[in-house]
Every structure is written in structure tokens, then in C-alpha cells.
Design brief:
- The protein contains 9 helices and 6 strands; from the N terminus they run H-E-E-E-H-H-H-E-H-H-H-H-E-E-H.
- By secondary structure, it is of the alpha+beta class.
- It folds into 2 domains: 124 residues, no CATH class; 93 residues.
- The strands form 2 sheets. A 4-stranded antiparallel β-sheet has the order 3-2-1-4.
Length: 275
């Protein structure tokens, strides 16, 4: 993994630089060459994960960020969430070439909680595998809605707690990024769950449809903890849409026949098996 971003992170580490490295729709915060925080517009902000996990309230986190807390939230849970937020943002930001811009500045307030060397960051992102592999590459996390299948073909599907949580939140409107933010989970974790649920036949695979006059992507405004605002897309990549199957016209009878009792019993048994 020798991308321009990796080379820049290693250079800043050698120089023991302190400041913010702006990277596309995200940023890395460094203190003496070590990464202490990171964010990306496509991943869940650390404050959202902290509040969703019950580690701190929104007001407590806001005061800690502003320096108003005598004892800002700390401990293993906060440290774990801080690490996950950095790995989450880095996994997406390292996936494709992006413009880089470093600005020297004061140390980030999370420096005492989270410290990751560029080497450890790169190793973790490599361990997670190719971000563009499979039916759900990372470039789709904020560009296409996650749609559940209308009919389950398997008789029995065993889900993990994380998969069940994601599947219950799927509504055919929100993207993986949206699901992760609403659940207070990492985008990478939701991406894995969506990939696995798609393989299990419970979520529809994404479909790319080309248009003659592509619509530009809307502007993305960063969250309070984030430092960047991205404008409209500058390429001509067509937007993502799902292929919608046209329903056949069905004649509605004047009088409905009573339901078959045996069919209802089999339907109830099938639903109980899926529960």
C-alpha cells in the first residue's frame, strides 16, 4: 500500500508534524507525526458513537471538546471508540486517490486518548481487505439505498446480533452511511453486515443505471467535529438507482374468496421458522 496518502502520512511522521491533513471529504489530525483523530463525511462521527453507546451525553461531549470539562470522558470504551473512528475514516479515505493539504496547527484535544502510528493504521486497513471488492465496494456506501428483498428464498437464516440490527433498520431509503449514523455504528461494520446480508439473500444487490444527463451529487456538509465541506461532484459518474420491477396489472375481483385454512397454517409455520 504505497498511495500518495500513505507516503504523506509517513513523511509527516518522520517530520513529527502537528496539525491537520485534509484528505478529500475527511481529515487526519496529527500530533508529532502520530494520528490522534480522523473523520470522513461518509463515516459516523465519534461524538455520535459515544452518545449512542451511552459513554457520555451530547452536552458532556460538547463541553469536553470545547475544553470546558475538568475531566473529559475517558477510559477503555472511549479509547476503543476513538480507535474505531480513525480506522473507519482511514479505510474509506485510503480507498481512492484524493487531494491532500496539510495545515500546521495546535494539538488535537483527543491526543491523550488516541495515538496511532501511520504504520499501525496502514496495517489495520490492509487487514480489513480490499475496500473495492465484492458487490458492495466502499464507493457505494453513501450513493445507493440499501433495499431488503421482498421474498426470502431460504427456509432458515441465522443472523448475528449486528446483522439483525442492520437488517431491522433497512428501509430502502437510507444508504450504508445513513444506517451507520442512525445506529451509531461504524460505516465499515455496517458495510460488512450489508455484504453478508446480501450474500444471504436478504438484501438486494446495488444496481448502476446510466443516464444521458447525469445528476450532480449534492453538497455534503461536515459534522461539527469535521473540518471540511465538499462541493458538488466534479466528475461525470452517473448516479446510482435501483432497478424497479414493474408490477403486472391484476384484475380485482368483485368478491374475495375465503382464505384457505391450510395455506394460513403453512404460512404461520414458515414465519415462526424465520423468527
Amino acid at each position: 500500500m504505497d498511495s500518495e496518502l500513505v507516503i504523506e502520512l509517513r513523511r509527516l511522521e518522520q517530520q513529527r508534524a502537528t496539525g491537520v491533513l485534509a484528505v478529500g471529504d475527511g481529515a487526519f489530525h496529527l500530533v508529532e507525526g502520530v494520528i490522534v483523530a480522523a473523520e470522513c463525511a461518509r463515516t459516523t462521527a465519534l461524538d455520535r458513537m459515544v452518545v449512542a453507546s451511552g459513554v457520555a451525553t451530547s452536552e458532556q461531549w460538547r463541553r469536553a471538546r470545547a475544553g470546558g470539562e475538568d475531566r473529559p470522558p475517558s477510559g477503555p470504551r472511549v479509547e476503543t471508540l476513538a480507535l474505531l473512528s480513525v480506522f473507519d475514516a482511514a479505510y474509506l479515505l485510503l480507498a481512492a486517490p484524493v487531494p491532500l493539504d496539510f495545515h500546521p496547527g495546535p494539538p488535537h484535544w483527543l491526543a491523550r486518548i488516541c495515538r496511532i502510528t501511520p504504520g499501525a493504521l496502514i496495517h489495520e486497513c490492509a487487514r480489513r481487505g480490499d475496500p473495492n471488492a465484492g458487490v458492495w465496494p466502499v464507493e457505494l456506501v453513501d450513493r445507493v439505498a440499501v433495499v431488503p428483498v421482498r421474498r426470502v428464498r431460504r427456509r432458515r437464516v441465522v443472523l448475528t446480533g449486528g446483522q439483525a440490527e442492520v437488517l431491522a433498520a433497512v428501509d430502502a431509503r437510507r444508504s450504508i452511511t445513513g444506517l451507520a449514523a442512525d445506529l451509531g455504528r461504524t460505516t465499515y461494520g455496517c458495510l460488512l453486515a450489508v455484504r453478508e446480508l446480501t450474500a444471504a439473500g436478504l438484501i438486494e444487490p446495488p444496481v448502476m443505471v446510466a443516464f444521458a444527463d447525469p445528476v450532480r451529487a449534492p453538497a455534503v456538509t461536515a459534522a461539527p467535529d469535521r473540518v471540511l465541506t465538499t462541493g458538488a461532484a466534479t466528475d461525470s459518474t452517473p448516479p446510482l438507482r435501483r432497478r424497479v420491477r414493474q408490477a403486472d396489472t391484476v384484475a380485482v375481483p368483485d368478491r374475495w374468496e375465503p382464505p384457505d385454512r391450510d395455506v394460513l397454517i403453512r404460512l404461520r409455520a414458515a414465519l415462526e421458522e424465520l423468527a
